[in-house]
Fold:
Amino acid sequence: MEVSALPPVYPVILCGGVGERLWPLSRPWRPKPFLALAGPRTGFEAAVARAAPLASGGGELVVVGAAAHAELIAAQLDGRAAQVLLEPVGRNTAPAIAAAAAWIAARAPDAIAVILPADHHIPDEAAFRAAVTGTLAAAAGGAVVTLGIAPTSPATAYGYIQPAAGRGPLRAVAAFVEKPPADAAADLVAAGALWNSGTFVGSVGGLLGELRRHAPQVAAAAEAAVASIAPDGRLGPRFAEAPAIAFDRAVMEKTARGAVLAVDFAWSDLGAWDAVAAAEGRSPDQPFVRAPPGVRVSVVGAPGTIVVVEPDAVLVCGPGAAQSVREPGAGPSPRFASLAEAAEGLDRWLRTAALPLWATVGVDPATGAFREALTWAGAPDDPRRRARVQARQAFVFADAAAEGIPGPWLAVARAGLEHFVHHARRPDGLFAATLDLAGGQADPEARLYEHAFVLLALAGLHRADPGNGEAAREAAALRSRLERFHHAAGGFREVGERPFQANAHMHLFEAALAWEGVAGGDPAWAMLADEIAALALARFVDPASGVLAEFYDADWGRLTGEAGLIEPGHQFEWAWLLAQWGRRRGEARGEAAARRLFATGRGGFDRRRGVVVNALRDDLSVRDAGARLWPQTEHIKAALVLGAPAAALEAANGLMTYLDTPARGVWRERMRPDGGFLEESSPATSLYHLYLAVRELRRAC
Structure:
């Protein structure tokens, strides 16, 4: 097909994102596309100059950006004709591309869209346009083509595209690889993989067809939003219903029509300050300084240091740390504009950072046992092996496998739990509370709390592999052995100085509900869940206040004074469980109690920091203003199950403060009352809380 015979071509510029790694220059109100980072023009201005000449056959320039940035877009277009589509909320690149394709298709159904980011640096505009022109015939024929940049190094900051075998520069896509570690990046480069440029070329009919096939919710929401577009270009409210997902993940990783054109012009995504320095021609060992006119900055004896000065903030970044830059001290300032964004962001963190890190560094390679903690730099910190850690981690990885999250999670779960069972099992069939690193029983005591998590881990294994009945048999036998913990006045008695407590019951309740959902015809699990729910509704939850305490006397009377601890996190956790139980049973009192508990938990929400505090007194005044990580995750879960999306979004944004660590996949555990964090390793026990919060967000959104 001759280029002259091609259908209309519409260049589409996507100018979303916030560019967190370019703080303090990039801010939410002035994000990366609208900054002049590599020359006198902003990224958006350069993209317009690069893309606009591609419009042909009646096509015109289309810009997709945030409604909040409408004035910036208009100012930097500087009178150039363009159709601007304004997103009411950010939804990542797949919904943005879907909206652009739908808008173009309504005017030119056979048109080709050339989609490019607004913030990339491509000095040779002619080479870029020549490459795009070389893809138009394939795009008109039904291919979805992306440009793959010939790598100059095995960079870990970029995604990679593996072309399929074949001849010529345009080939089918074999695979996408998202930001690999250094050794994998080197292997990819050696194998001929290309950097992913984020530029796509396809017919609008083909793009919409692939979106409808592989991401139907995205396509439906975007098309409905375009159908109700406002005169000023603001997309209709249905746009907010689109899942927040990248086009690569939504379509390119799944389509059979993907193709890649290898190109070798200079390119950078300017994703961090080291990339900006490189675009200016600085060598990695030279200092890089950016400051306002009139501000003098001297850097002496610090090669490779990055210094960025703004009127209200200064960044000093050591060599090799540019990818870790984030705005510090953000506190409760929103990171996510919606629950869908929160679900997408936290799910990506879980899948690409937390699960891989804790399944590798977080596992003792000699035994398969799970480590107790990792440092903020992602190094092992492993003084002991508690039963609760082994069981919780096994549950997380087994449930991840059951949820269909790609990865070797089931094998990791099995290996860890098998090591624990082999070494921790006592002669009576119960399990020791703690092992030493050699597998010896450092604390042979059998505690109800620990066994609740062993039951939960077994439920996860059974759910991931229901054809193997071993987990179900082990769980049923263990449930019978726990009869020795039964208390004459009802419920269960824990080991230790506070034997009558709600917390151990809560996790046993959780395990019973989990088994009830997977065990088929075994009615004993439902009976156990009902027994604990009845005790909670009759004795744990105060009928007058709706508050649930932590500790009780032998008749299940609530203790007061110093023992009268009220933990907001446990109000939320019980609310999440009782609401589920009530709905399964058709018991309105379950949800009614859950709503009262949720209200109590919200009373511990500190709006200044955007987090839930650790503990309240009997009168619900603050007793401990510190804020651990896990109550934030329980806040999310309870808000979701009770249909409180605004509270869930507040909780998700508060949680993000804890995940801002030098190594991705670990977390800060204890926030001080002043908003700072105690410098301590990330405990493995919190992965269970984080995983469940992300799972519930994913299911809700």
Summary: Residues 339-487+498-700 form a domain with the Glycosyltransferase fold (CATH 1.50.10.10). The chain has three domains: 3-275, 282-320, 339-487+498-700. The longest strand covers residues 194-203. The first helix runs from residue 43 to 51.
